[in-house]
Amino acid sequence: MKVNERHMALISAFYDALGRNDLAAMESCYHPEVSFGDPIFQEIEGRDRVMRMWRLQLGVRDGLRSAYKDVRADEHTGTAHWTARYTFSSTGREVVNEVEALFRFEDGLIVRHHDDYDFKRWSRMALGRPHGLLFGWTPVWRKTIRDRATQQLDALA
Predict the structure, then answer these.
(1) Is the pTM of this model over 0.90?
(2) Crossing angle of helices 47-60/139-155, nearest 10°?
(3) If DSSP codes are grouped into helix, strand and coil, which group holds residue 126?
(4) Which domains does the chain have, with CATH numbers?
């Protein structure tokens, strides 16, 4: 892998902005046709919709503190590990989520951003007992969480 310092700096700028809750700076890192995916928001298309997702996430993640490390990038792709620490607002429960991020670049911007984490572990932390512990691993529960998140995202339109 030939290291691309510009793309590594772009990933770092994105996470620095996330750490400051600076949505405008985060948005400036994204290509207009960016797509985002994670275990809850499986596939979101377009910078406007992706930024609505971040506004929603920052709203339900009370006191989000983030840290990142292991940033790597080449001409086309990049990776990073980041940790999100926050209080999940609907339950008041503390969450520490370890996330592996994958990026693809186009025109010097992030055109694809995919975050991956252990949904079951997140569910136990965010939702607690009995829901997170008993149901966090089931497809039906995941669909319920995903549907609720999509409804909240659509309500911001």
Answers:
(1) no
(2) 110
(3) helix
(4) 5-117 (3.10.450.50)
